[in-house]
Write a structure and sequence with these properties.
Chain lengths: 298, 539
C-alpha cells in the first residue's frame, strides 16, 4: 500500500515555544488514521503544516509524495479540510459559504453532481443554510465546513476535531460520511481527543504528546499493551488472592482488578474455581491508554 | 460594591488606554492649535484678513467653523472647535457601541445579564462611563486653552460645548446599538451620523449670511440640525451664551429615553432592525476569492463613494455660492479678486480643497481593504479559503484589486458629481477639465497608502490596522492644521497628500506624483514576492 502522508522528525517552533518536537506520522492510502492527543499536543500545528498554511522548522513532511509548503495548490485540489474551530464570514449565509468553498475546490463540470450531494448532506445534517454566519452556533459552523468537505470528492480528508460541537445524532451522520468516503477509496486523517469516535472509525492510530509521537499502531496492537478490566461481586469474603491480578480493590460490594490482556488464562481459571458472581470483563479502552501515557489527562 | 459600580469600574478599566488616548489627543489638539494660531496670526490685521477670506470662501467655513469675531480667542474657537467636538463625538460613539452591541454580539452580555445586573444596568453603566469620559475631555480642553492663555470663562464654555456634543453622540451610539444586530453596522451608522452632522453644520455655515464687517457670520438653518453646530453657537470668548447647550440636553434626554424603552422591551442579542435572511445558495457569479473580497467590501466601498460624492457636490457647487455672495457684498468681491491669481482661479482652489478631502477618503477606503485582509487572517476565515486550491499570493492580490477599485470608485464618484454640479450651477464649463485633472491628481497619494500598508501586512501583520489608521489620521491632521500651526515645511511635506500633482491649466505640475506611483508599485511588487514566502499568522 502506498503512503499518503509521510512525516518524519517534524519540528516547529514559535519563538521559544516548541510546538512540534520530532513528530513522526505515516498514513497509508485508503486508511482512516486517528490522530490522538490532548489539547496543545501539536495536532493542529501538524495539520497546518500538512496544508501548507505553516512552514516546518525542521524535519520532513510530504503529502502524496509532495512538499505541502511548495506544492500547496496542486495538493489542495486533492484534499478537503475541516478546521477544529470554524470561522465564518458574518455577512454571508451558511449556504453561500458552503458554495464558495466548494466552488473553489471544484473542477469544471461538477456542478450537477455537487448540487445533489449538497442537498443530501444538508438534509442529513439537518442544517439551515439561510442564516448569516454570525447567527450559527459552534456545531452549526462545523456543519458548514463538514458539508463543504464532503460535497466535493477528495483523495485525502484532513479533519481536525470535526465533531467537537456536534450532538450524538450528528456524530452518527458524520461517522457514516467518513465510512462512505473511505469505502470510495479516500484516505482520512482524523484528529481528536474524543476516544470513542476514534475507536469506532479508525484503522490505525497515532498518539502524540508534547509534539512527539508516543505510540502508533492498529487498535489491536495498542490494546495489547493495556490491561483488561475485571469486576465481580465480593460476597462476604474480604481476603482475595488471585494470580495475575493488579490494582485489586474492594468497593461498593464489588471486587475490581486489572490483568494483562495477553496473559488472562491464569486469572480467568482462578475466577472460575472461585465461582464468582456478576462477572464483567471489559477490554481496555483508549481512555486507559491515554491515562497510561498522560497520567492525569483523560 | 453594587452591580452598577462594579460595571462602571469594569468599563473604566477596559477603556483606560483607549479613552486616555482620545481625551489626551483632543486636549493636545486644543493646546497646539491655540499656541500655533497665536503665533501665526498674532495681529488683528492678520486675523481680520483671514476671516474676510473665510466669510467669502465656503470651503474654509466648511472645514473650520463659524466666524464670530476677530479677537485672538474667538479666532482660535473658529479654527478648532468643530474638530474638538468631532473628536468627542467619535470617541463617544465608539465607546457606546463597544459596551453595548459588541458585548451582545460576542455573547459576553449574556454572562452579565444572567447576574442581578440584568437588562438596564449595563446601559446605565455605559452612560455613566461615557459622560465621565466627556467631562474629562471638557476639563482637559478648558485646561489646555487656559494654559495657552485664553480667557477662563470662554475656555470652560468651549470645553463644556465639546463635552456636551460628545454626550449627545454617546446617546446616538447607544441608540444605534439598539437598532442594529451587529457592532459593525452600529459603528458605521453612528460614525456616519457624526460625520454628516459635522458636514451639516459646515453647509449651514457656508450658506450663512455674512455680517456687515465681514468678520461675523450668521449660520443658516442646517447648522441648527447638528450637535456640533449647537456647540459653535455658544459663542465662546464672545458673548459666552450657554443656552444652545440646552438643545444638547434635550436631545440627550429624548434619545436616552428611547434607548431605555427599547432596551427594556427586547431580548438580549436581538435588535429592532432584524437581520435579513440569507440566500440558500450562492449567486452563480459568487465563485472566486475576488468575488468574496468584493462582497466583503461592497457596502463600505459604497459608503466611501457617498463621502466622495459629497466632496464632489461641494467642489462643483461652492463656486456659484461664492459668486452670489460677491455680488451681494462688495467687500467679499474685493477679497476674491485679491486672492485669485497666481495661475489659479478661486473656482479651481475650491475644487482642489474639496478633492484633497476626497483623496483622504480614497486612501481610507484602500486602508480599510488591506485591514480586511488582516481580519480575515486573524479571524480564521482565511484558513478555510487557503485550504482550497487558492494560493496565498492570489488571495492577497484579490483584496488589493478591490482596494484599487475602492480608490477609483471614490474619486470617480467625486469627479462625476462635481461635473454634474458645475454644469447644473451654470459655472464655467472649462472647470470640467479641471475637475478631471484634480481628481486624477489624488490617485498617487492614495495608491501610496495602499502599497505601503500592503507591505506592512505582509511583513508585520499585527501592525496593519493600528499603523494604517494612525498614519492616515496624522497625515490628515498635518494637512489640515500644518499651515495653521506654522509647522516647518519639512514636516508638512512628509505627507503624501502634500506631494500630489497639480493638474490644472496648460502647465501641469507633476510634483511627487510619479515618485509616489513608483514607490507604491514597488511596495506592491515587494509585498507580492514576500507573500509567497509568508506563512499564515493568526496572531
Amino acid at each position: 500500500m502506498s503512503t499518503v502522508i509521510d512525516v518524519a522528525g517534524l519540528t516547529k517552533t514559535y519563538g521559544r515555544v516548541r510546538a512540534l518536537d520530532g513528530l513522526d506520522l505515516t498514513v497509508a492510502a485508503g486508511e482512516i488514521h486517528g490522530f490522538l492527543g490532548p489539547n496543545g499536543a501539536g495536532k493542529s500545528t501538524t495539520i497546518r503544516i500538512l496544508l501548507g498554511l505553516a512552514k516546518a522548522t525542521g524535519g520532513s513532511a510530504s503529502v502524496f509524495g509532495k512538499d505541502p509548503w511548495n506544492d500547496a495548490i496542486g495538493l489542495h485540489r486533492r484534499m478537503a479540510y475541516v478546521p477544529g474551530d470554524v470561522a465564518l464570514w458574518s455577512n454571508l449565509s451558511g449556504g453561500e459559504a458552503i458554495d464558495l468553498i466548494s466552488r473553489l475546490r471544484q473542477s469544471a463540470g461538477e456542478a450537477k453532481a455537487y448540487a445533489a450531494r449538497r442537498a443530501r448532506l444538508i438534509e442529513e445534517f439537518q442544517f439551515d443554510p439561510s442564516k448569516k454566519g454570525r447567527a450559527y452556533s459552534k456545531g452549526n459552523r462545523q456543519k458548514v465546513a463538514l458539508i463543504a468537505a464532503f460535497a466535493t470528492p477528495a483523495d485525502l480528508y484532513i479533519l481536525d476535531e470535526p465533531t467537537s460541537g456536534l450532538d450524538p445524532l450528528m456524530e452518527a451522520v458524520f461517522n457514516r460520511e467518513v465510512r462512505r468516503v473511505s469505502d470510495e477509496g479516500a484516505t482520512v486523517l482524523l484528529s481528536s481527543h474524543i476516544l470513542s469516535e476514534v475507536e469506532q472509525l479508525c484503522d490505525r492510530v497515532s498518539i502524540i504528546r508534547a509534539g512527539r509521537t508516543a505510540e502508533t499502531g492498529t487498535l489491536a496492537e495498542l490494546r495489547h499493551l493495556t490491561r483488561t478490566e475485571i469486576a465481580f461481586a465480593a460476597g462476604d469474603r474480604v481476603d482475595w488472592s488471585i494470580p495475575g491480578a493488579n490494582d485489586l480493590v474492594v468497593e461498593n460490594g464489588r471486587v475490581r482488578l486489572t490483568a494483562d490482556s495477553a496473559n488472562l488464562a491464569p486469572t480467568l481459571s482462578a475466577l472460575a474455581s472461585l465461582s464468582v458472581q456478576g462477572l464483567t470483563v471489559a477490554p481496555a479502552s483508549l481512555e486507559e491508554l491515554f491515562l497510561r501515557h498522560y497520567g492525569d489527562v483523560a | 460594591m453594587s452591580a452598577l459600580t462594579t460595571l462602571v469600574a469594569q468599563r473604566v478599566r477596559r477603556n483606560r488606554v483607549t479613552v486616555t488616548i482620545w481625551v489626551a489627543s483632543t486636549g493636545f489638539l486644543a493646546f497646539v492649535a491655540a499656541i500655533g494660531v497665536a503665533r501665526e496670526y498674532g495681529t488683528d490685521e492678520d486675523r481680520e484678513s483671514i476671516l474676510r477670506l473665510a466669510v467669502a470662501n465656503p470651503a474654509i467655513l466648511l472645514l473650520r467653523g463659524l466666524p464670530q469675531g476677530a479677537s485672538l480667542d474667538q479666532f482660535i474657537f473658529f479654527q478648532i472647535f468643530t474638530y474638538l467636538a468631532l473628536m468627542a463625538g467619535l470617541m463617544s460613539t465608539f465607546l457606546a457601541v463597544r459596551h453595548s452591541r459588541t458585548e451582545e454580539e460576542t455573547g459576553r452580555a449574556e454572562l452579565i445579564a444572567s447576574t442581578p445586573a440584568a437588562r438596564r444596568t449595563p446601559t446605565t453603566a455605559t452612560l455613566i462611563h461615557g459622560i465621565g469620559a466627556n467631562i474629562a475631555l471638557a476639563l482637559l480642553v478648558a485646561g489646555a486653552f487656559m494654559a495657552a492663555g485664553l480667557d477662563a470663562v470662554g475656555a470652560l464654555l468651549c470645553g463644556a460645548a465639546a463635552g456636551a456634543a460628545g454626550v449627545a453622540y454617546l446617546t446616538v451610539g447607544l441608540l444605534a446599538a439598539q437598532l442594529f444586530r451587529t457592532s459593525r453596522a452600529a459603528n458605521s451608522v453612528s460614525v456616519a451620523v457624526v460625520l454628516s452632522t459635522f458636514l451639516l453644520r459646515g453647509v449651514g455655515d457656508a450658506l450663512g449670511t455674512p455680517g456687515d464687517d465681514g468678520l461675523h457670520m450668521t449660520s443658516a438653518w442646517p447648522s441648527w440640525l447638528s450637535p456640533i453646530g449647537w456647540g459653535q453657537h455658544v459663542d465662546a470668548f464672545g458673548t459666552n451664551t450657554p443656552l444652545p447647550l440646552l438643545l444638547q440636553l434635550a436631545l440627550v434626554i429624548a434619545v436616552t429615553a428611547a434607548v431605555y424603552a427599547l432596551q427594556s422591551s427586547r431580548d438580549s442579542g436581538a435588535s429592532l432592525i432584524a437581520d435579513s435572511p440569507g440566500r440558500l445558495t450562492a449567486a452563480p457569479a459568487f465563485r472566486s476569492n475576488l468575488a468574496l473580497a468584493w462582497r466583503l467590501h461592497r457596502t463600505s466601498v459604497i459608503g466611501w463613494a457617498i463621502g466622495g460624492a459629497a466632496c464632489g457636490l461641494f467642489a462643483g457647487s461652492l463656486s456659484s455660492l461664492v459668486r452670489q455672495a460677491a455680488d451681494s457684498t462688495p467687500a467679499i468681491g474685493d477679497t476674491l479678486s485679491a486672492i485669485s491669481g497666481a495661475g489659479t482661479t478661486l473656482d479651481q482652489a475650491l475644487i482642489s480643497i474639496m478633492f484633497s478631502i476626497a483623496g483622504v477618503l480614497a486612501a481610507a477606503a484602500a486602508i480599510q481593504s488591506v485591514i480586511r485582509l488582516r481580519q480575515e487572517e486573524a479571524g480564521g476565515t482565511a484558513e478555510l479559503l487557503l485550504s482550497t486550491p487558492l494560493s496565498r499570493v492570489r488571495w492577497f492580490a484579490d483584496f488589493l484589486v478591490v482596494a484599487v477599485v475602492a480608490v477609483v470608485a471614490v474619486l470617480l464618484s467625486a469627479a462625476s458629481v462635481a461635473v454634474v454640479a458645475v454644469i447644473a450651477t451654470g459655472s464655467d464649463s472649462s472647470l470640467v477639465g479641471d475637475v478631471a485633472g484634480i481628481a486624477v491628481a489624488q490617485l498617487p497619494a492614495a495608491l501610496l497608502f495602499l502599497g505601503a500598508l500592503a507591505l506592512v501586512f505582509v511583513v508585520a501583520p499585527a501592525w496593519t490596522a493600528g499603523l494604517g489608521w494612525s498614519v492616515l489620521g496624522l497625515t490628515f491632521f498635518v494637512g489640515v492644521f500644518g499651515p495653521l500651526l506654522g509647522l516647518p515645511d519639512a514636516v508638512t511635506h512628509i505627507s503624501p497628500f502634500a506631494n500630489s500633482p497639480v493638474l490644472i491649466g496648460d502647465e501641469p505640475e507633476w510634483n511627487g506624483g510619479f515618485t509616489m506611483l513608483a514607490v507604491a508599485l514597488a511596495a506592491v511588487a515587494a509585498s507580492l514576492v514576500l507573500m509567497r514566502r509568508r506563512a499564515l499568522r493568526s496572531t
